[in-house]
Amino acid sequence: MTAPLARLGSVDLDELNAEAELQTRVDRKYIVPRGVVASVLADLPARTRVLEIDGERSLRYASQYFDTPALDSYYGAAQGRRHRFKVRARTYVDSGGSFLEVKTRGGRSATVKNRVPVEGDALDDEAVAYATDLLADAGVPGAGDLAASLEPILVTRYRRATLLLPGADGTDPSRATIDTELTWIARGGRMLRLPASVIVETKSGNRTGALDRVLWRHGHRPATVSKYGTGLAALYAALPAHKWRRVLTRDFAAGEAGQAPPPTTRTTPPATARAVAA
């Protein structure tokens, strides 16, 4: 994927955020074979640019996802609950810095993401208070108890290229991400890799973005996939995953399972999945 990205102009982080910050947005996700990404990128509109930081255009990310012992975040996504939420600590491995991110659902199924800088990927009292306020504002029942019980459940690792795409016909610019080297690691060290697949995520306002239209022309349609939800379901088959069944069967079944090196923290699998891990 390096060669297609090299042909694009660059944009820095400040300009990217100024033109298309899109903290409130509509997300569409696609899973495409890695081998077709070059042809998709070659069909991007003129003036598409790629985020570049310190000369790098494909940056390493790591996300620690938190959930309750009852997996309320997971079940909220799996069952399509109205007041679902997601809490993670995202680390930008190459550029440095970590953020606690809380994602909730707004009007018209828009994703609302709020984040604050943190040290590392643990939840201290201040982080719990921050999550409590945001979950309560989003109407999540029992926000305080949920936030207080959050614990680390799943780690995702990947490389990400971020695109800034020009608007057309009066629409605003949009952004998109292309994630490769996809890896999931559950507590206990169970690991899954998808080296032959790429997750493309478009982020736009109410109207579709330029990359959506390119993907459609190449025969790719949005997929129902969540890095946290689908990844956890792939690692723990006993979890209900009807929402992601097609993706699990078509894409995740071809993944490479393994065991990650022992972590330095406790390694108890999620409570709901302990019987599966045994």
Short description:
This protein is an alpha+beta fold and 278 residues long.
Q: What is the topological layout?
A:
Elements: H1 2-6, E1 9-11, H2 13-20, E2 24-33, H3 37-42, E3 49-51, E4 59-67, H4 72-78, E5 85-92, E6 98-105, E7 111-118, H5 125-137, H6 143-148, E8 151-165, E9 174-186, E10 190-194, E11 197-204, H7 210-217, H8 227-235, H9 245-250, E12 256-259, H10 274-277
Parallel strand pairs: 1-3
Antiparallel strand pairs: 2-7, 2-11, 3-8, 4-5, 4-8, 5-6, 6-7, 8-9, 9-10, 9-11, 10-12
Tell me the strand percentage band: 25-35%
Q: What would you call the shape?
A: globular
Radius of gyration: 18 Å
Helix-strand pattern, N to C?
HEHEHEEHEEEHHEEEEHHHEH
Distance between the termini: 39 Å
Helix content: 25-40%
The low-confidence parts are: 265-278
> Mean pLDDT, rounded to whole units?
87
Strand order of the largest sheet: 2-7-6-5-4-8-9-11
- Number-wise, the strands total 12
Q: Which structural class best describes the helix and strand composition? A: alpha+beta
Major sheet, described briefly? 8 strands, antiparallel, barrel
Total of DSSP H or I helical runs spanning 4+ residues: 10
